[in-house]
Specification:
Elements: H1 3-25, H2 42-46, E1 71-74, E2 80-84, E3 95-110, E4 114-127, E5 136-146, E6 152-163, E7 170-183, E8 193-198
Parallel strand pairs: 1-8
Antiparallel strand pairs: 2-3, 3-4, 4-7, 5-6, 5-8
Length: 209
């Protein structure tokens, strides 16, 4: 391998290793997703798809309180999805692919006796030192809805397929999870939480912490 190629490869590993260290540092800490205030990410949703086909239903404005749309949190320990070479888990130089979250947003719609819910996420998939661009990655993401008593109201896993183009070292992806509707609680979702995370646990062991 030529000296120039050695320098370029070493630079790539250095940048990737630094990124991996930054992601690893937040794995054990629950953090609120960015831009969570109501309305900040409205354009993010409206540019993708409308919330189903059922129009929002409201009663007289003077008799209804607004919905308190829950904050989105990243579940502790699930902030990154890292794929290693078999038998070399934990070795930064054996990483094939790394996927981490970017921006997140949520929307709650008053449907009268029900509340319509959905969460939007962006993420970034990167090729590691042992990875190859052009491969299809399976990216499982768990979405959880918790009430004000921290009971799990809804928990679902969506498996995304992400492809890093052959001539690139990373790609950004976007997904909107339509969670459907839940009966409107008397507190109008006040104190509820949305949680998301990469789901690498066996089926049936969802995140509830």
């Amino acid at each position: 391998m030529s000296k120039a190629l050695n320098i370029a490869y070493a630079s790539r590993i250095c940048r990737f290793g630094l990124s991996l260290m930054v992601v690893s540092a937040v794995l054990a800490v629950a953090v609120p997703a960015s831009a969570q205030e109501s309305g900040e990410k409205k354009g993010f949703f409206s540019n993708i798809i409308p919330f189903g086909s059922k129009p929002e239903t409201r009663g007289p404005a003077q008799t209804r309180n607004p919905i308190s749309c829950p904050t989105v949190w990243v579940q502790p320990g699930t902030a990154a999805h890292i794929v290693y070479e078999r038998g070399k888990e934990g070795d930064p130089m054996a990483v094939r692919y790394q996927v981490r979250f970017g921006d997140m947003a949520r929307e709650c719609v008053d449907l009268g006796v029900e509340a319509g819910l959905r969460i939007g996420v962006t993420g970034r998939a990167l090729v590691g030192p042992k990875g190859t661009p052009g491969q299809k990655l399976d990216v499982p993401i768990r979405f959880v809805v918790m009430d004000n008593d921290r009971n799990v109201v809804m928990s679902t896993v969506t498996k995304l397929q992400v492809v890093i183009p052959p001539d690139q070292t990373g790609v950004t992806f976007t997904h909107v999870e339509e969670l459907g509707s839940v009966p409107m609680p008397r507190n109008r979702l006040k104190g509820w939480e949305f949680r998301v995370g990469f789901d690498t646990k066996p089926a049936g062991r969802g995140s509830q912490g």
